[in-house]
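Thread: quick sanity check before group meeting

JM: Hey all, I'm pulling together slides for Thursday and realized we never actually wrote out the predicted structure for the chain we discussed last week. Dropping the sequence here so it's in one place. If anyone has concerns about the input, flag it before I start.
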Amino acid sequence: MHVKRLQEVEGQRRLAIVFSSGEEMVRGLTDLARDQQISTAHFTGIGALRAGILGYFDVTKREYRRFGIDEQVEVLSLTGNIALEGERPKVHAHIVVGRFNGSTLGGHLLEAHIRPTLEIVLVESPHYLRRTFDPASGLALLDLSPETPPAR
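JM (edit): ok, ran it. Output follows.
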């Protein structure tokens, strides 16, 4: 993974991130957020994958139903955010990929194995968000309660 810091705009750090073949995006982006002390951000991306795991949340079972991608696909849309869950940054991303025949697959992104590249632009927010467990849904949701930002 290669990272280049772009011009900061209105207190928002911006990063260009390029993943190479063989790298895994969710783990890589989580590690980057931890190492760079990024507690809140949003991102978009395009590129291609050789494999991945997607899912959707089954509300009645209160768990993600997973399905795999095991073929070369184009990333048509990748969007997500980073927020603290406890003291750790948590990547939450959704993706739509295009298959060889023009059909698409999409869902919550759990793993993304890159080939040949994935390009992400990440924008850090000067404010931070936290995820807290919501017993009604069974998910860790964004908590918009006002709090003091964590020290850097």
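AS: nice. The first helix runs from residue 25 to 35. The longest strand covers residues 104-124.
JM: adding both to the slides.
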